[in-house]
Amino acid sequence: MKITLVRHGKSSYADQSAMPCSEFRKWVDGYEAAGIIQEAAVPEETELKAKEAKLIVASTRCRSIQSAEKLGSASFILSDPLFREADLPVSAFSFLHLKAPPSVWAVYCRCAWLLGYKGDKESMKEAKERAVQASRRLMELAAQHEHVLLSGHGVFNQFIARELLKNGWKGEKRPGRRHWSCTSYTYEEASDRQINRQRLS
After folding, report:
1. pLDDT > 70 fraction of the chain, expressed in percent and rounded
2. Tell me, what's the pLDDT at 90?
3. CA 58 → CA 28, 101, 165, 193, distances in Å?
4. HSE on the CB side for 110, CA within 13 Å?
5. Taking phi first (over 0 means left), then psi (-120 to 50 degrees means alpha), and beta for anything else, what does residue 59 get?
6. What is the pTM of this model?
């Protein structure tokens, strides 16, 4: 069985102008609503993995769905909010109206989230619990379809990868973080049984 994790294509939301943190929430809303840059090239390795996959899975975010559609036929795409990105909380602090590019505020808010700040969003603990459910769902789908590809998101793909490794799947410790990067995880039940028998003998 095989599960391939792909990070979605780059967002078409191009506003990178400096702004105060108080306006960053609107930027996040715009980013979430935007699709991907359709003209961007998909790496050959990712295209090949998509052709091999029997099922392509996406979250319900526009950039994830459009990436899945670009990778394969819409007739075998399954969309589920379970696979959405870990929420990015926006700090309530105004920082005396200090302005910075949205990429700076994104890093700041993600670091604050990792340190325990959640605002009105999902906490890191809750996201990791959701990743347990998401990995189980992917494993179930892989058992049915042999090879499943997830058109997912940067942070949440990492959480899923950790759960797959915990459950005996083989692959990279960290999936690719670049847009369109792909990382595959495999599970060979017969081989695992043979290893277990050797340990018992």
Report:
1. 91
2. 86
3. 20, 29, 21, 32
4. 12
5. beta
6. 0.89
